[in-house]
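Final report, Chapter 2: Outcomes

The project's central promise was a pipeline that accepts a single protein chain and returns its three-dimensional structure in a standardized token representation, suitable for archiving and comparison. That pipeline is now operational. To close this chapter, we reproduce one record exactly as it appears in the project archive, with the input sequence first and the structure output second.
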Amino acid sequence: MTETTGALVIGGNLNGLSIARSLGRRGVPVWVTSPPSIKLASYSRYTQRTLPWLNGDSEAQAAYLLELAERYHLNQWVLFPTSDESAALLSKFHSALSRHFRVSTPTWDALRWAYDKRLTYRLAAEQQVAYPSTVYPATEADLRSVNFPAILKPATHATINRFTADKAWPVTNREELLARFREARELIPSDLILVQERIPGGGESQFSYAALCCDGQPIASLTARRTRQYPVDFGYSSSFVETLDVPEIVGPSQRLLAAIRYTGIVEVEYKLDARDGRYKLLDINPRLWTWSPLGGRAGVDFPYLLWQMMVGRAVPKQTGRTDVRWVRMSTDVPAAIHEILRGRLSVRAYFRSLGRPIEFALMAGDDPLPGLLDLPLFAYKHFHNACETVRKGVPSAKGCAIKS
């Protein structure tokens, strides 16, 4: 194999940009297939070509990928997902897609444990890994055992609506819980709704174990704290992350991944519960995560290591350095302002946190255009999503004069 074996990335978001830069800097051809509203990766000098993405059911999307392989002679290129849904797509059609591609996700028998949070927490219980107290309400009567404060969240994100698009719906009392549960039940089946205890703390209490695994055994790994996030209370993604030595989450993560014989890259998320001092499992992300370029700065470049493994090259065991930072300025500045106004962060401490070594999410001297476009594209994305919400008849989002 040589670097003529390229990569086809499904999704032009920040994760797609991270993959394009990681591989492109090493001479690997990178193509991206993405909807027109998500084109950040397309502006990278390392993305050689952008193709449209097919909206439709998963069978049609898998057929479309096979059609692209034949039309453009992408034989044995590596397929990279950038979201839970694209990871599930590649996993479910792993066998068919492998006729033309190298599929970088594990097969569905392994990935389903990460994709469906009901299975994730069942796995955690089997492996004796702590996780937040969780109720799976089939009816409103099942909500009587919920303690407050709590959150509602979906078990999967197979459908897109205002519930699955949000990180979580917080509730503080019984009346609010019933109202939110009824609202969520109109959007997804009740067996996909989880009600979970709300662990106190923000980003400073969230930690991750990130790894490249083969058959459940880690080859490359690091641990990190997701110190700041945006929005502050229920962030869609991290805005400031730093590598730390967190041995408490290494053993539990390795037990989970070994149990399902996981192969590929993965991020295992925890939240430290100050009430009992335990790290509690939140999610297992079976694809690249937003702050993954931090790994490259810390000596563990996950997309490139995964590409090497997929094309049959030996990848030596390695662990990322500590005290390395990653920041996305367009979201971290408002997050920091919020924390400063709350009295939880000083201006001096904020600027000190941005010291070297640090990796910027978008800004790069060898690839400047995505960084210049980050803020306008970020604003456009939120405006577009708000307009879509109004267009579909959901009474939220101000400032969009779009009629149904």
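Archive annotation: The CA atoms of residues 86 and 364 lie 27 Å apart.
This record, like all others produced under the grant, will remain available to the consortium after the project formally closes.
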